[in-house]
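JOB MANIFEST
job_type = single_chain_structure
chain_count = 1
residues = 313
[input]
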Amino acid sequence: MTIINRLTNAFPLWVAGASLISLFHPAVFTWFSGPLIPVGLGMIMLGMGLTLSVEDFKGILKYPMWVFLGILLQYTIMPFLGWTLARVFNLPAPLAVGLILVSCCPSGTASNVVNYLAKANVPLSVTMTAIGTFMAVILTPILTAWLAGSRIEVDAWGLFLSTFQVVVIPIVAGVIFNRYLPKLTRKVVVVSPLIAVLFITLIVASIVGAGSAFIRKSGVQLIFAVFTLHALGFLLGYLAAKIFLKNEIASRTISIEVGMQNSGLGVVLARQNFSDPLVAIPCAISSVFHSVIASGLASLWRISARRYSQDSP
């Protein structure tokens, strides 16, 4: 195993370590903010696009049930868990609303990165993320209002633009490079997983640093609630997909899509639609736990991916 692969497989350590540092010394990572975050996501998506071809996306059309099931699980398992855990852990009203809000958000671009690192089905992941994000315009406010009793507004045009900018454009560019500059692409993809690890670590640590004061004061009860939300999301997503699809790679991909939420979207919605700043805290903590759990799965599944390479379309 090369040094690059070793560093890439240590993804959980980088995310956990950087998040811990940022929690107590925010300035170390909060400089990575503003326009740097979408730029970082764009670079990650470009790296993934370099590994894809048009044929990869055509293959997904042969398995529409995979996409349908994945999105169905995303918008049923997670909201149900968010509502249930808010009651089980008896969270104060603003924290309960925050937990439900983030559980009703779609998966974000980070899930595409993790599926990429896990050697899962990246085209399936990107397809689910894109469709799920568009559906969030309707489903996120409806589910949150239903489960939390509060109504929020979602900027549909903003969601579309952000998805297009950090997912569609870079990935299409990567596919084009892969098709027309194959020799250069083969050299770049050697280091692109490590670059993805670097950027996602910076992004997560930046989010933690920005909310570090709130997170330190939020209490153990909320920490366990958020951790349980994502741990059960990954587990139930995997088991449900395995039962219905009986396909290992598809089950791993869907597990990651279900277990990871667009926590950044949750933070923005919380700040824009709720006067109580406590609502945003579960969203900030969510970004840490789903990244750490997912990165651990990515490292584990990356090592065993060769055994199931024939499962993907």
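[summary]
The chain has one domain: 15-305.
The chain has a mean pLDDT of 82.
exit_status = 0
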